[in-house]
């Protein structure tokens, strides 16, 4: 077993345990923390895959910004645990988990078998890490239009949020 | 073997060390730097109290040891022997976890900051940096952004309204000022000289590219970005005038109101450690790193390494003095002033610096013109923003009505 | 490490997100599960990008991250305004169109 396999098992294991914790903790704050752990472990997997820049972006964007927003909202609204009574979910929980496991089995089947028949199987994996320069070059030449579109999405989100939470005046809210 | 080397020293391109030398030298460097940080924290606690005393025309602690220099040790012993109190109403796991979550990011940031050029020992050229990773500056931004969790979780777990308000303020403040922190660096990265295949994000490369002369130091070329970065760093370290999270007149002690004993000491240490690391990063990015008018090249391969370490040490110490100086010079912002300042002044200045640096560097290739252009552009932008604010100023209502959600504002 | 291990991990993470959306009623946690699913997709993108030896997959991860950031900002704003009106974030109780 070489270093990469050990690290894969460690990071993969942490991310799976974190993901399961996200959906099983009762209090949203603990779920958020578990999600941060998962994102961290995934950043580790990205480094393992030679995607250093993506790993850094993962920590900056997800762990550093998005999850802080989540925590902020949970604390601001002081969301405790919800009462589960009267929820249809309680009775159908087993069904949901079975359906989910079915989906997982499908995904694993595709990952193991179906990829053998495509061009993906014949490709030679490269060990060299992708540099920031390569990503930037691609982002600002071939994918310039999508890049600009994402900036528009962000702008739209910005305006949308302001409209949503804006207080119009003393008469409303 | 190949792989392990790769992980320990990702894309380190200027030295190739045998594996055992790499491991041993890394461990020694980590030990030295970790201890330097802790000693630095103690020195900062002492000097902050003495310098504060000097600035306020009083003495400050001078009883324990020569000039009170053992005061931090006495404080530490006091913290250790105090009862480690965990209040009944707190969320225990998070309450215990929070101080560590603040301290650890503060400590591991230093790993990518160079603390000197390089030292030749036993025929091996050892870089004075724990890890020269290709995404160094992004690593610093990533880890810095994690520091907020310690504050937020400590605040929430304390189950105390003052703590919670402090935590809310802190999270909003850190998210706002992080943007400026990141954007102010981009101009620096544009002008970093690298060979093809090297990464301009490495802090060693940034420091090296400032080595030629004084006018290569980034704070002259990117003066507005330097000011914006420094200000944002003050906010990120929760220091006055940005210590809204622990404003004692309003919030008792903010997020660490419920903490005592060693856990409180950890919060305290983390704040000072953040200051030290932040100063070291600023020195590397803007103040020439280990360069000082060729002094770093004096002496042989051993002495130049030690001298470069001394230079960076002195620069960091001077910058830390500025921290204390600012603390006793500027009053605390009000919360809305803090947000206005961050979003309406610092962010536009940082954005302008990117645009102006990019345009002028591509068209003229002259650092002097970039420097002048940056200052002029920042001046124009600040004037426009200030003008707009003055024109749109509405008279404030006499008694603002606060609902539950407004209380943090 | 072969590609399939990363894809299996990605599938498992995605499924965990799906199950979370199905069994939890707290809007915030449902939202976190959606983030989990997006991240699982990111992992598959990067793994395949490494396998094929080209950078495009990593560029797409950026687009996913940007969209996720925008989505979180909007979504949390919606949750905050729902909470202001109904004093709850339970998606079962927020089921009528009348505000």
Short description:
The complex is a heterotrimer of chains A (173), B (409) and C (99). Chain B has 409 residues and is mostly helical.
- SSE order of chain C in H/E notation? HHH
List the helices and strands of chain B in order. Answer: HHHHEEHHHHHHHHHH
What is the percentage of strand-forming residues of chain C?
Answer: under 5%
Largest sheet: number of strands, sense, barrel closure of chain B: 2 strands, antiparallel
Q: Report the structural category of chain B.
A: mainly alpha
Q: Summarize the main sheet of chain C.
A: none
Question: Runs of chain B with pLDDT <50, length 5+?
Answer: 1-14
Name the chain pair whose interface involves the most residues.
A-C, 83 and 71 residues
Number of helices of chain B: 14
| Domains of chain C, number | 1
Structural class of chain C: mainly alpha
What is the multimeric organization of the chains shown? heterotrimer
Cα-atom radius of gyration of chain C: 17 Å
Straight-line N-to-C gap of chain C: 53 Å
Question: Which architecture of chain C per CATH?
Answer: Orthogonal Bundle
Helix content of chain B: 55-70%
Using the coordinates above, name the CATH class of chain C: Mainly Alpha
Strand order of the largest sheet of chain B: 1-2
* Total DSSP E strands of chain C: 0
Molecular structure report:
The complex is a heterotrimer of chains A (173), B (409) and C (99). Chain A is built from 7 helices and no strands. By secondary structure, chain A is mostly helical. Chain B has one domain (2-66, 87-390). A two-stranded antiparallel ribbon of chain B has the order 1-2. Chain C has helices at 3-23, 27-52, 56-86. Chain C has one domain (3-86): Helix Hairpins (Orthogonal Bundle), CATH 1.10.287.3510. Chain C is mainly alpha-helical and 99 residues long. At the A-C interface, helix 1, helix 2, helix 3, helix 4 and helix 6 of A face helix 1, helix 2 and helix 3 of C.
Set down the secondary structure blueprint.
The complex is a heterotrimer of chains A (173), B (409) and C (99).
Chain A: H1 3-24, H2 28-48, H3 52-77, H4 89-112, H5 119-122, H6 132-139, H7 144-165
Chain B: H1 2-8, H2 19-55, H3 71-81, H4 92-108, E1 118-121, E2 124-127, H5 136-157, H6 161-190, H7 203-208, H8 218-221, H9 223-236, H10 248-251, H11 261-286, H12 301-327, H13 335-364, H14 367-391
Antiparallel strand pairs in B: 1-2
Chain C: H1 3-23, H2 27-52, H3 56-86
